[in-house]
Amino acid sequence: MESIKYNGEHLLPGQLGHFFTILAFVASMVSVVAYFISVRHSDELKKSSWAKIGRWSFYIQAFSVFAVFATLYYIISNHLFEYKYAWQHSERELEVKYLLSCFWEGQEGSFLLWSVWHSVLGIILINTSKSWEAPVMAVLAFSQVCLGSMLIGIYMFDYKVGSNPFLLIRQEDPSLPIFNNPDYMQFKQFMDGNGLNALLKNYWMVIHPPVLFLGFAATIVPFAYGVAALWTRRYTEWVKPALPWALFAGMVLGVGIMMGAAWAYESLTFGGYWAWDPVENASMVPWLTLVAGIHTMLAFKSSGHALKSSFFFILISFVFILYSTFLTRSGILGQTSVHSFTDLGMSGQLLVFMGIFTIPAFCMLIARGKQIPALKKEESTYSREFWMFVGALVLLVSALHVTFFTSIPVWNKLLDISGIRKLFKLEEFAPPTDVMLHYNKVQIWLAIIIALLTAITQFMKYKDTPKGVLAKKLAWPTLISVAIAVLIGVAGRIFYTDYGAGVLLGIYLMLFACVYAIVANITYIITVLKGKTKAAGASVAHVGFGLMLLGILISSSKKEVLSIDSMNVLSGYFTKESGQNSRENLMLPKGLPVQMGPYFVTYRGDSISTVDKDKTLYIVEYERKAKLEDVPTERFTLYPDAYLNVKGQEGITPNPDSKHYLTRDIFTYITAVPRKDIPADTLPYAQHVITQGDTVYFSKGFMVLENLNTKPQQKNYHPEPGDIAVGAEIYVHTRDNGDFRINPVYFIRDSSFQANVPDTIAPLSLAVKFTKILPNENKVQIELKETREPMDYIVLKALVFPWINVLWIGIIVMAVGFAMAMRQRMRK
Questions:
Q1: Is residue 60 predicted with pLDDT exceeding 60?
Q2: Within 13 A of 226's CA, how many CA atoms are on the CB side?
Q3: Does the pLDDT at position 452 exceed 90?
Q4: Are 497 and 414 in contact, with CB atoms under 8 Å apart?
Q5: What is the spatial distance between Cα 654 and Cα 644, in angstroms, rounded to a whole number?
Q6: What's residue 1's pLDDT?
Q7: How does DSSP assign 545-576, residue by residue?
Q8: What is the pLDDT of residue 621?
C-alpha cells in the first residue's frame, strides 16, 4: 500500500528531538559505566582515563538534554500542532508568557525539566567534587539513565519504555479516518490546539515548577555523596562536601513548595494556600526528612554523633522524592487529588526507578552499618546534638504520618493485588472526611515541639551544657515570649472553637512556641553571636520558620468569611459535589449594592480579556462607609476572573483576586454565574417566607417588606363588611427602571374564605401575591411571578486572611537563613 504524503507537517524538529533523546540516553549509560569502572580500578592512570570518558560522556548527554529541551520549546512556541505534545498542551491564542507552562503541564516535559536540572548540577559537580567525582557522578548519571528512559518512547519485548514527546498526532492512532486525508492539518481542531489547563494560566506556574524541580533534582546530590561514601567506605568524609548541597536543596525545595502555596492562594478556590492535598503532601515530606538530615549532619560535624542517622535521613529524602513522583504520576491519586497527573502507562517504570535507587542504597547501609564509626559514649541530655536528634525524629514522625494517610490509595491497591482484602473480607480504606482537621490535629503538636526546640537548642553547647546556664540564658526570652503570645491571643481575639477546647489549647501552645522561636533566636544572634551575621544562618532560618508557623496559625485560625448569606437566598443552590457551602456565598445582582460585613459590594459588570478570549473579568467594587455618615471611607475594585465552560465542561474555572493590606488580605473569587442559554418563558409563582425588613431578589432588582397595613389601599381590592384584610407595603428597587411601591393584599371573608389580591408592576412584568400569615413565626408568605430573562448576577465568596504577610515574610527570611548557612559551609 502506498504511503500518504502529508502536507503542512514539519518533521525535522521532531526527528532532531528524538535523535537527541536517544543520544542523551546512550551517553548517560556510557557515563555510568565509565564512572563505575573508574571507581572500581585501583590503578590511578586507568582510574583517571575512565573518569575522563565518563566526564565527556556526561557532557554529551547534558548537551543532548539541552537540545531536546530547546527543540520541544521550539515546537510549542511555533504552534507545530502536528506533534501531539504541542497540540495537547498549547493553543495558538495562548499568551507568550505561558508557553513554558505548556512545557511542563505534561509528564514528558516535567521529566525533561528534571533532567535539565540534573545536567546542570552534574556539570557543577564534575568541576567541584574533586576526589568524589567518579562515585558521585556514577549515581547522578544513573539517575539520568532512568529519567531518559521516561522520554525515549520505544518498545522492548512488547513493553513501551517511556513516552516520546515528539510523537506526531497521527501516530497516536493512525487508523482514524481523518488521517487518510493528506491535508488533515487544515482541519480546525489541528490548527488551533487543544489549549492549556486554565488553572495553569498564572505567572506562578511559569516560575514555580522550575524552582520545585530544581529542589527535587538537588536532593540527589547529598544522596549521591551518601551512596558514594557507603560504596567507597569513606564513611565520615562525605558529610563536609554534602552539607552545603543539602542546605541548597532544602532552601530551593522549601521555596518551591511555598511558591506552589502562593499559586494555590492566587489560582485555586479552596480558600487558602494549603489544603493537605496529596500532591502538596508528597512534595512536603522529602523536605521534612531533608531538614532532619541537615541537623543530624551538623550534629555529627560538631560532636561525632548521629552519623548513621545522617545516612538514613539523606537517603530517605531522595527516596521520598521518587515516591512522590510515583504518587503524582501513576494516576493512583486521581480520586483524591485535584492536581495529580493522569497515568501514561509508566507506573511500572516509576516503581523500577524508585526500587533501583532504594534497594541498593539501604542494603549497603544495613550491610555496612557496623563499619560506620559511632561514638560509644552516649549523648548528654544537656547537649545540643541530643535535642537536634530528637527534633530530627519528630520531623520523621511528621513525615511518616503525612505519608501514611496520603498513601491510602496505594494501600488499597496493594490489598487488592495481593488478595488480602478478598481473603480477610476487608473494607476499602477511606481517606479522612475532614482532611484539614485530620492532619492539623496531629501536625500542630509536632510543630509545637519543633518550634520549642528551635528556640531552646541554639543556647545549648555540643557534648554538654553546664546546668543552670541554659535557664539563665532563656529566662528573658521566655518571659518576653509569654507576654507577646498573651497579647496576640487576647488582643487578636484568637478564640477558634470550631473543633473544641483541645484544638484551641493546641493553638495557644503553638502561638507561644512560634513567638518563642522568633524571640529566642533573635536573642541568640544579639547576645551570643554578638550580631555576627556570618555564623547566624541557622538562627535566621529558625526566625523565618517561626514567622512562617505564626503566619499559618493566625491566618488560619482567624480566617473570616465575609460573604455570609444571612437571607438564605442561595439555599440549595450548590450541590454537595461542588464543595461550596451555600451559606458562605453571596449573590450580587448587577448594579445593586449588597452589604457584606463592613463593606457594601457592587457587581458592576464584566468584560472579556483582551489577551485571553476564554477569560471573563468581573468588576466587583468594595465600599466601606462610616457608621453615621454616607461618605465612603474606603473604596477599591477587585477583578476576579473565570473561564466559562472550559473545553465543554459544565461550571466555571475561577481565579481569585485579592486586596492586599499590611495586616490582612481580602480574598475574593467567583463561584457561579448565570447561564446565558436559558430560553425566555414565564416563571411560575415563587414562594418566599419573610419578616418585616427582609429583602427578596428578583431578576431586575430587589424588594423589601417595609410594613403590614391593616387598612390596605389597593385599587383592585374592594372591601366588604366583615373583611379582615392586611396589606403588605413593599418597596421595590430596580437597576434600570427606578423605584416602585406595591401593596398586595391578603384577606379573610365570611370568617373562612381566604383570598388575596396581587399587585403588579407592568414595566417589570412583575406580579406579587400576599398569600399567608404565619403568626407563630411572626412571618408572612409572598409569591413572585415575572417573565424570565437571564438575570445578570454573580455569586462570589470573600474571605479575610489576617496577617498572612507574616507567612510570606517568614518564607523569605527562612530562605535567606538557608543561603547564609550554605555560604558559611562552602567557605569552610
A1: yes
A2: 34
A3: yes
A4: no
A5: 8
A6: 37
A7: HHHHHHHHHHHHHT-EE----TT-TTTT-S-G
A8: 94
Distances from the Cα of 637 to the Cαs of 295, 372, 596, 600, in angstroms? Answer: 47, 64, 14, 12
Please give the grid coordinates belonging to residue 267: 489560582
Max CA-CA distance within the chain? 122
- pLDDT of amino acid 531: 84
Return phi, psi of residue 670, to 5°.
Answer: -85, 135
> What is the rounded CA–CA span in Å between residue 430 and residue 707?
53
Number of Cβ within 10 Å of residue 127's Cβ equals 10
> Cα separation of 85 and 4, whole Å?
22
Q: Is the dihedral of CA 402, 404, 407, 409 positive or negative?
A: negative
Contact 655, 266 (CB under 8 A): yes
- Distances in whole angstroms, Cα of residue 582 to Cα of each of 210, 390, 564, 587, 797: 38, 46, 9, 10, 10
Question: What grid cell was written down for 50?
Answer: 575512565
Q: How far apart are the first and last CA of the chain?
A: 70
For residue 676, the SS3 value is coil
Kindly tell me the burial class for residue 382, based on how many C-beta atoms sit within 10 Å of its own C-beta (0-12, 13-18, 19 or more): middle
**Cell triple for residue 466?**
553546664
Give the dihedral of Cα atoms 805, 808, 812, 814; nearest 10 deg. 100
**Angle, CA 103 vertex, CA 98 and CA 105 arms, to 5°:** 90
Distances in Å between the Cα of 599 and the Cα atoms of 440, 665, 797 are: 32, 14, 14
Which residues, in sequence order, are bridge partners of residue 644?
A: 652
pLDDT digits (tens, 9 = 90+) for 600-614: 899 998 887 766 777
Strand partners for 586:
796
| Grid cell of 244 as nine digits | 552545603
pLDDT top residue among 555 and 684: 555
pLDDT band at 590 (very low <50, low <70, confident <90, very high): confident
pLDDT of residue 338: 56
Cα–Cα distance, 593 to 761 (Å, whole number): 22
Cell 428578583, residue? 698
> Per residue in 303-330, pLDDT tens?
999 999 999 999 999 999 999 998 888 7
pLDDT tens track for 143-193: 999 999 999 988 777 777 888 999 999 888 888 888 888 888 888 778 888
Distance CA 721, CA 463 (A): 102
Sign of CA dihedral 795, 797, 798, 804: negative
What does the block give as the cell for 541?
A: 532560618
